[in-house]
Records
---
Amino acid sequence: MDNLINIFEMSPRDGLQNEKNFISTNDKIKFINKLSFCGFKKIETSSFVSPKWVPQLSDARDVFRGISRMKGVKYTALTPNEKGFDNAVIAKVDEVAIFTAASETFNKKNTNCDIQTSLRRFKPIMNKAKKNKLPVRGYISCVSHCPYENYVDPKKVALIANELIKMGCYEVSLGDTTGKGNAEQTFKVIKECLQFTSPKNLAGHFHDTYQNALDNIKVCLENGMRTFDSSVGGLGGCPYSPGAKGNVATEKVNKLVLSMGYKTNLDSSKINECGDIAKKLKTTGSYS
Ligand code: HMG
Ligand code: MG
């Protein structure tokens, strides 16, 4: 349905990966269980990345083991390499995501390799995902701006998006990691990507550091995109993007798109409650 907006909840992964305090496994599980009642079809639950790189999510396996899975909700995770993918399969993840960037320096800081090497690393993941019938989403970071290189060429973003789609990703999420992308830049990125793919295969992932996210989402909507990543309470950031704030708040995206006549099938009061819990996790490091 063209007026249905898919809001992909990111807070347990993109949110909690950036918290200074380690949120206990039990509190993560309680938070995810509460999110499961909001109406989301997908919750990015954790990451199977190196615990040395992101210690905050080193308990991914226990989180997946502990949550109560709600029928109709997919619990997803990031997998940067085969080791991460194998661990995700053991944890019975419903969908995985691979991630690269449109900036060489950011990619090196985030995954310790250049962009081409990261794309090569994804090939065995895609083969195994096919065998396991697991859908794979692709992320591109720094689509509008890089914290180390500044300018990012939208054509480069589109070429990488095309590579990810060609290797079998069902969707590519375009990440404005620093939140510096404005509506004009976002339009350029989408326009280039649409040379290769349909808006149905693209998602918007906006960090709201400079309050540009809602304007950027409007540009995406005008260009046919219907999937957006967000975090309740605006939780999040990226440990390898200094100063970047959280994903745009789910509450804000929901309110915006409803006011524009779209549907989300989310329970507004439940997402507000989860937003309060997210803020509490952020300020006190604990759920209760
Ligand atoms: P590396 O150090 O080059 O990896 O890291 P390696 O293959 O040389 O292995 C080194 C050690 O890590 C070994 O352990 C491996 O076993 C272990 P040791 O022998 O030293 O004890 N290891 C792993 N352990 C558990 N799970 C794994 C794994 N892989 C290796 N999967 C690597 C390369 C990619 C692993 C590392 O750089 C990494 O984990 N990076 C992840 C960084 C990250 O999670 N960043 C945040 C998510 S991306 C993001 O937030 C952006 C996004 O939101 C969009 C946007 O906003 O832009 C998606
Ligand atoms: Mg992000």
---
Amino acid sequence: MGETFEPKRIIVTGGCGFIGSNFVHFVVREHPEVHVTVLDKLTYAGNPENIAGLPADRVELVVGDICDAGLVDRLVADADAVVHYAAESHNDNSIADPAPFVRTNVTGTFTLIEACRRHGVRYHHVSTDEVYGDLALDDPARFTEETPYRPSSPYSSTKAASDMLVRAWVRTYGLAATISNCSNNYGPYQHVEKFIPRQITNILDGGRPKLYGDGKNVRDWIHTEDHSSAVWTILTRGLVGETYLIGADGERSNIDVLRAILRAMGRPEDDFDWVRDRPGHDRRYAIDSTKLRRELGWMPAHTDFDQGLAATIAWYRDHESWWRPAKEATEQKYAAQGQ
Ligand code: NAD
Ligand code: TDX
């Protein structure tokens, strides 16, 4: 299937975060004709090491805020596409302090789409399945592009708000935009605040994993490499104005994932602590990605979860210098919340 849009100069916001940096590596590796400008504020979640070593003539890092309208306008004027990953991304943080979520996720998106509108630049909006709220454990349904929005947390409500802005800009101003809503990502370079890296690094640190509530909540896991290939597919072959759900049929309960980590790391399966549940904790997410597969021919490549998990555990074991600086402060924050 050919590409219908062939960008040459793209801006990747949040390109020093977990998923954005994976996409930058993906583009540099797979598409040598494309130049990438990373716009990243380097918050606690952004780390320039995530894109270190890439060729300087292919990747430029601009340290700045997506809410800085002047800076965004100057960069967008010189690009032919924006792929927007930058966000405050962690639910627990959003419950403790929602203000940065409203600012970055809503005002930041507004600033970017206004610049894209002014300069006629293509825009891809990276969002989450959490905008659809949650499903019951025994519900056979999965989320589709038609599922009504019903976000639960400050994080997911700000992501939902940003999706709505993009849809309105498409309809009212003819913004050339696509939207993707992806399920839970895992893989290397994920911040230690998130479920899988937190548990792996707790074990590596001689501590115990921490499971919220009854552990039966279900997440639909996808390897971040598959998220990157899907976003590229949508950017270059997706129809303007369309939304595509991204998922790899990876539903698993948290307790099953945790036991798989414990087994893979040679620990007894009950060697963890039950901790306070997340307020408003979504029960289950599940993605039906038929539209993306049928209409754009995308397929996930990393579908063996146990293999992906083993490689992720090995990566954290081999990259302590990457995660160590963030570990103590993250655990202090959790301890203060009883988690
Ligand atoms: P992350 O927290 O690891 O990275 C976010 C990046 O954005 C960081 O580099 C940070 O410095 C940057 N950033 C934050 N505020 C900024 C601002 N105001 N200006 C410029 N840069 C700023 O997040 P992630 O897990 O890589 O998620 C990336 C995107 O993917 C988000 O939009 C998130 O909603 C979406 N998403 C994530 C998942 C997941 O499982 N993690 C799933 C679906 C969708
Ligand atoms: O220590 C923990 N123990 C635990 O049981 C942590 C950190 C989490 N959990 C549970 C909560 C969730 O049910 O594990 C599940 C996954 O938690 P997170 O890693 O915080 O992810 P989630 O809240 O599902 O959101 C993620 O996927 C969708 C990303 O952080 C979002 O950015 C994305 O939009």
